[in-house]
Amino acid sequence: MEFIKQQLEGLGLNGLTKIYAANIIMVLFIALLCILANFITKKIVLRTIIHIVNNNRYTWDNIIVEKRVFHNLSHLVPAIIIYFSAPIFPLYQVLIEKAAMTYMIIIMITVVNALLNAFETIYRSFEISKIRPIKGYIQVVKIVMFIIGGIVVISNLIGQNPLIILSGLGALSAVLMLIFKDSILGLVAGIQLSSNDMVRVGDWIEMPKYDADGDVIDITLNTVKVMNFDKTITMIPSYALISDSFKNWRGMQVSGGRRIKRSVHIDTSSIRFCSDEMIAEFRKIHYLADYITVRLEEINAYNAEHQINRDSNVNGRQLTNIGVFREYIHQYLRNHPQIHKDMTLIVRQLAPGDNGLPLEIYAFSNDTTWSIYEKLQADIFDHIFAVAPTFGLRPFQNPTGHDIVQLKENKLLP
Fold first, then answer.
1. What Gene Ontology terms describe where this protein resides (cellular component) (predicted)?
2. Helix 2-10 / helix 15-40 crossing angle, nearest 10 deg
3. Mean pLDDT of 62-77
């Protein structure tokens, strides 16, 4: 500054004119120096760092570059120059230093924020991130960082010790608890969800209270994001997964089998004892040949042992078409390539009702993919409905308009 003033005096400038001109020149010089330093930092230093990162064998440092950690850090260079240039302007030194320091604090907050984002992205590249998500914890760290950063900025601007401001926050604790209620509840819920392994990213969960039925795509501090199967997105409060009940289908997906539990209703008026002609036809069915032979031998031996009068079908033991049909379905499922052989397989009768006799299929597919599971289930029941008449059985169905028209045409109805 003294050198500039001497040069200006040589040009004939004195008094206030000389001071103002010297200050303007110095400001322009500092601005030019900041521009030059920023250019060197971004065009040379930053490009060199990016080149080194892109040409090594690691991938995590590429994520740091993508999150612009080094780009944000480069903004410190002009601020440092301005901060150390403040003594040149004694009248404005304190103001310049405070402004530059505030800017540097904000830049450091953005750098740490970008670094945390990069760390989260790197962590997500590992499989453990689906079991132990850390996004909620990172959000807590960010909240604490922003609060501390705000306190430091305010203390720098007013020239007070940050501890004095912190001590004053004690009176505002109740207000802060109210403001950050959801965040505190979410943090506690996140710890419980993670430690108890209750839900992971990628899990299929069902929570009717919130109309959620789909895959978990994100777990944050305050919310769990669920993409429903109709492609809508439901946001569930994290603490709701602790306080309310929900269904997690992960166990089904991990087991490798998905349950089929559906009934076909049989018209009870079509159930009867098997005649000799029916038994002869059943012997031709691949899945029933051995069963019919063994079963008839067992029945005949029982009837002979107990001297059963066979003049009436009511006496002794007999084969029924519903029993043979039930065994056929059981053997059909046992030999089906898409039915899980190591899980429960039952074909059972339920209590009869107004809709006939329910014959329930309880089995597991060996593929949990939704589309394949539904196709398998449809194929099985297509086959069951198609073969039921072979056993002399009629699936139950309430009368339709077509049935009434047929009855009228046959003059069975007035």
1. plasma membrane
2. 130
3. 84
Which residue did the predictor score with more confidence, 207 or 180? 207
Note the pLDDT tens digit of each residue in 236-275: 988 888 888 888 888 887 788 899 999 999 999 999 998 8
C-alpha torsion sign, points 299, 302, 303, 304? positive
- pLDDT tens for each residue of 132-178: 777 777 877 888 888 888 888 888 888 777 777 666 666 566 666 67
* Higher-confidence position of 13 and 308: 308
Short-list 202, 194, 195, 191, CA closest to 248: 202
Residue-wise pLDDT for 272-281, tens only, equals 998 889 999 9
Whether residue 324 contacts residue 283, with contact meaning beta carbons closer than 8 Å, is answered with no
Candidates 237, 240, 242, 135; CA nearest to 196 is: 242
The answer for residues whose C-beta is within 8 angstroms of residue 304's C-beta and 6 or more apart is none
- Long-range contact pairs involving 228-231 (C-beta distance under 8 Å, separation at least 24): 229/370
Domains by residue range for the chain, with CATH: 2-192 (no CATH), 195-254 (2.30.30.60), 258-272+320-403 (3.30.70.100)
The token duo for 331 is 């053997």
- CB neighbourhood size of 177 (10 A): 10
Identify the three-state secondary structure at position 363: strand
Written as one string, the DSSP assignment of 163-215 is: HHHHHHGGGGHHHHHHHTHHHHHHHHHHHHHHHTT---TT-EEEEGGGTEEEE
For residues 282 and 344, what is the distance between their CA atoms, to the nearest angstrom? 26
Amino acid identity at 334: R
